[in-house]
Amino acid sequence: MIDLRSDTITKPTPPMLEAMWGATVGDDVYDEDMTVNQLQQKAADMFGMEAALFCPSGTMTNQIAMRVLTQPQDEIICYNGAHIYKYEGGGLAYNSQVSTRLIHSQNGILHPADVSNNVNDDNIHYPTTSVVALENSVNRAGGTCYTLDQIKAVTTAARQHQLKTHLDGARVFNALVSTGDKAQDYGQYFDTISICLSKGLGCPVGSLVLSSHELIKKAKRSRKVLGGAMRQVGYMAAAGIYALDNHVARLSNDHQRAQTIAQHLTTKSYVLNLIPVQTNIVLFDLPNHDTVERLLAHLKNHGILAGMMDKLTMRFVTHLDFDDDQLEQFLKVLDLF
Ligand SMILES: *Cc1c(COP(=O)(O)O)cnc(C)c1O
């Protein structure tokens, strides 16, 4: 099977398993898992943040970040296709009791005017705007990336309005490899950053929320109440340390393969609105839902799984377990459609 539904489907490589197998562990609820502590410090240092907290999923790290940055009745500003709004089960309303101010953006990128035009005045009729949440890369917009300059501009606007800033960095390593920006430069612009180990980096599980010592202390309370405090989880943290050391630079291979797929798709008359590929996501529309179903079925018949983003939109995601031989086979199967 060739699986292009998501970069979450990867399995640990033999050396990653070896790193996991050899991990020193302890009870992380008592802060006694040295491997977790090491991963947390490593991730925080990498992004120029003070501290970090290891959690089971990216949904949890985003939800925890919103809990620590907001009060009930607040409002957060985000892209209308943001994961935090669209794909977390209504968690913002449920966990943080906040409303969302959705910004319609063609490529998912927010600009300073999106902030200044959407901050509510101090008036009891309006929710209190308190956070600007960005996503990089932007999943629903086809893996588009913010440059550091764009991040600086929009977060500076947010801070001028006394707003807090959050980055959903589930695929931030793809964005960093694509733009050439440095993780180290990100910390200064955000109050909280969430990063995922289980997407492009190829770990079986894990995500971290990065922030200040003070907010991470608060975050720990949120993680506990969400049921996300784990015990001898250093085995998973070891996979994370291995991935941060060995699986970041190689993301450019995934990006190259996504480019090749996109170039191939430009020759197909049924492909509409193909989004220029910047990372490992290929997103495009088909003329109608019937064609989507037929293409999915055709691929499946040839042992290939692909994703449907909505009725007309298909998604291919390249990853660690998709190599050049599979790429060649995939393009041949596309030609048979
Ligand atoms: C995958 C993803 C997450 C987190 O998802 P989990 O499945 O909960 O780990 C968060 N944000 C974005 C943009 C994502 O793509």
From TrEMBL:
GO biological process: glycine biosynthetic process; L-threonine catabolic process
EC number, as in UniProt: 4.1.2.-
SUPFAM superfamilies: PLP-dependent transferases
Keyword annotations of the record: Lyase, Pyridoxal phosphate
Record domain Aromatic amino acid beta-eliminating lyase/threonine aldolase: where: 3-284
Modified residues (N6-(pyridoxal phosphate)lysine): 199
Pfam family, one: Beta_elim_lyase
InterPro entries: ArAA_b-elim_lyase/Thr_aldolase, Low_specificity_L-TA-like, PyrdxlP-dep_Trfase, PyrdxlP-dep_Trfase_major, PyrdxlP-dep_Trfase_small
Names of required cofactors: pyridoxal 5'-phosphate
Molecular function GO terms recorded: L-allo-threonine aldolase activity
One GO cellular component, as annotated: cytosol
Domain of life: Bacteria
Family membership: Belongs to the threonine aldolase family.
Protein name: L-allo-threonine aldolase
Provenance organism: Microscilla marina ATCC 23134
